[in-house]
Amino acid sequence: MSSSPSSGPGLSPRTGRPRRAAADAAILEATRAALVELGWSKLTMGDVASRAKVAKTTLYRRWANKSELVIDAVALLFDELDLPDRGSLAADVEGVVLRFAELLDRPETKTALMAVVAESTHDPALQARIRTSIVDRQKRLVLEGRARAQARGELPTETDPAVAARTSSLIFDVIAGAVVHRTLVSSEPIDEAWAHAFTHLILNGLTAVAPPMERG
Amino acid sequence: MSSSPSSGPGLSPRTGRPRRAAADAAILEATRAALVELGWSKLTMGDVASRAKVAKTTLYRRWANKSELVIDAVALLFDELDLPDRGSLAADVEGVVLRFAELLDRPETKTALMAVVAESTHDPALQARIRTSIVDRQKRLVLEGRARAQARGELPTETDPAVAARTSSLIFDVIAGAVVHRTLVSSEPIDEAWAHAFTHLILNGLTAVAPPMERG
DNA sequence: AGGTTTCGCTACGGGTCGTAGCGTAACTGC
DNA sequence: GCAGTTACGCTACGACCCGTAGCGAAACCT
Predict the structure, then answer these.
(1) How many whole angstroms separate alpha carbon B145 and alpha carbon B84?
(2) Are A103 and A200 in the same domain?
(3) Is the Cβ pair A198, B111 closer than 8 Å?
(4) Nucleotides in C strand less than 7 A from protein CB
């Protein structure tokens, strides 16, 4: 597979010259910068190497190809997301939608995420890497908000763990999917009014009366 | 911009040798085939040209670059979607989710859609083309289903057209986004159980009791 | 020391891009 | 018919990028 730096330190050889750890950070930073300026298709390995002040061969010793490099460069950004307790389920949902939208608004995030997903449609290994590096890591937000809402009595407590897992996945895909789709496919901005309307829809359903969205 | 064939016939010159119309269809078909076999990054213009039995220069005379070619090649596929009346809003939503998931399951669709979206993050012209060629065309499904549900009395009739437009866009992003995200990002299949649970969520909201999903 | 691995550098074959130039084909208006 | 215009297929080209190989030097271990 790849010689990514994410391979644990236990696997690293105990002999020989150690890899310069700072180079990893420099390369990933350079990759993000190059993505912003050039986009996916015009990003070249040679350019990343020179930005990071590293030989191109060093780059290939650590990552097998462009896709895996970009995944690692972007995965970190998603870890910035947190879910502060805003007192109610509705406020929590609204908050995470806005934070996620903000994250997706950064050019390196949007470009990298879609490009990697596109490549993954023909590369099962890449799919797996996306799931472990991004999807599974972010599901924690849903689990957290769900547990919090259950503690508040806003949501029924789930007994069957299998059902709970399916429901969490469903909610995750609905929230993340809506934000991604509006931002990247429909190319329309996400403001507080949209977040509010979306939250109303998710919590109360389509059959409820029209959401209290500000006119404008 | 581009010399796409979508430029109306009124703009075509009335003199000189006319373009061979069949070549367009052959090129688009070849593009889809190449996408399936090679994926986005390994698809080359030369390969498409030879598949379509057309000179590479002819290809460049009609499309400016790979992205615009791929958009035109894929936009047609989305027109296949329709929305048969299944008797209720819930059944309609469930139906369109399954049909859309089916469409996204085809390798040429998923590969092309994501790749083009990724490129569009650095190309406003491409964004506009995606909106007109795909997004706006598919919103008709939402409008259709909504009108049908209102006729049945399942949804309140909207008076303010601006509010109605915003609501339709919201619903579109939620439905399409959830399907796209689960299929392409989470890499999990969409079956009838998921469609059922999703529909329940959209119609009744998160605060309702757990959806009647078959155990398994 | 000796062994091992990384690093920077250079160089290379193979492939793709997008364009230019040519002769020819098709169609229009005089 | 004939000149004018545009599309077509073909070849060739410079520019660029990919991913790898080989080298000497550096950094760490026992």
Answers:
(1) 9
(2) yes
(3) no
(4) 3-11, 15-21, 25-29
Distances, alpha carbon A196 to alpha carbons A85, A181, A182, A193, A214, in Å: 17, 17, 14, 5, 10
How far from the centroid of its chain's Cα atoms is residue A123's Cα? 19
- The answer to whether B150 and B156 have CB atoms below 8 angstroms apart is yes
Give A-chain residues touching B167 at CB under 8 angstroms. 197, 210-211
CB contact at 8 A, B73 and B118: no
**Dist CA B134 CA B77 (whole Å):** 10
A136: domain CATH number is: 1.10.357.10
**Strand C: residues with CB below 7 A:** A 13, 15-20, 23, 53-58, 61-62; B 14-18, 43-47, 56-57, 60, 65-66
pLDDT in tens, chain B (216 residues): 334 444 333 455 678 899 999 999 999 999 999 998 998 889 999 999 999 999 999 999 999 988 889 988 988 888 888 899 999 999 999 999 999 999 999 888 888 888 888 888 888 888 888 888 888 889 999 999 999 999 999 998 888 999 999 999 999 999 999 999 999 999 999 999 999 999 999 999 987 755 455 443
Asked if residue A80 and residue A57 are part of one domain, the reply reads no
Q: Are residues B170 and B80 in the same domain?
A: yes
A130 and A196, same domain (yes or no)? yes
Per the structure, the complete domain to which residue B185 belongs is given by 75-204
CATH code, B32: 1.10.10.60
Whether residue B40 lies inside any domain: the answer is yes
Nearest CA in chain B to A210: B156
Residues B92 and B152 in one domain: yes
